[in-house]
Design goal:
The protein is of the alpha+beta class and 122 residues long. A five-stranded antiparallel sheet has the order 1-2-3-4-5. The radius of gyration is 14 Å and the shape is globular. The protein has four helices and five strands, in the order ααβββαββα. Strand 1 and strand 2 form a beta hairpin.
C-alpha cells in the first residue's frame, strides 16, 4: 500500500500532458488510490469506487454504518499541488451522488481526520 511519503515525492512535479494520459500520471493515480484504500482499511471504511479521468479522479468511500463520502482531486497539470493541498470531500447519499453535501477542501495529511468529522455529522 502506498504511503503519504510516496505521494509527497510528486509535490511540485510537472506531469506529462497530451491526448492520452501519461504513464507518470497513471502511476501517481494508482499510488494515490492505494493510499486512500489503506486509509479505508485502517478505519473500517469501504473504498467503493474510483472514477479515473484524464489527469484527475474522484472516488467514493462508505463508512461501516452506510454513510458515503465523495472525494475528488483537480487536474494535476493545471492545478499543481492541489491534489495535496486542496482535496475536495463532501457527504453523498450513495455511490452515484456526485452533487451531495457542501464541498469542503482539506490537505492530504488531514484528510483522514476530515473524513471522520464529515461522517460523524452525516
Amino acid at each position: 500500500m502506498a504511503k503519504l511519503s510516496e505521494l509527497k515525492k510528486y509535490l511540485n512535479y510537472e506531469f506529462s500532458t497530451g491526448v492520452y494520459t501519461g504513464e507518470d500520471y497513471k502511476t501517481f493515480q494508482t499510488k494515490y488510490i492505494n493510499y486512500l484504500k489503506s486509509l479505508c482499511k485502517e478505519n473500517g471504511w469501504t473504498f467503493v469506487s474510483a472514477l479515473r479521468n484524464h489527469y484527475c479522479f474522484s472516488a467514493f468511500i462508505k463508512s461501516s454504518d452506510g454513510n458515503f463520502i465523495y472525494l475528488s482531486i483537480s487536474d494535476v497539470r493545471f492545478f499543481r499541488n492541489e491534489w495535496y493541498n486542496s482535496v475536495l470531500i463532501r457527504t453523498a447519499k450513495n455511490e452515484k451522488d456526485y452533487t451531495g453535501g457542501s464541498s469542503k477542501y482539506y490537505s492530504l495529511p488531514v484528510l483522514q481526520f476530515a473524513i471522520h468529522q464529515l461522517l460523524k455529522g452525516a
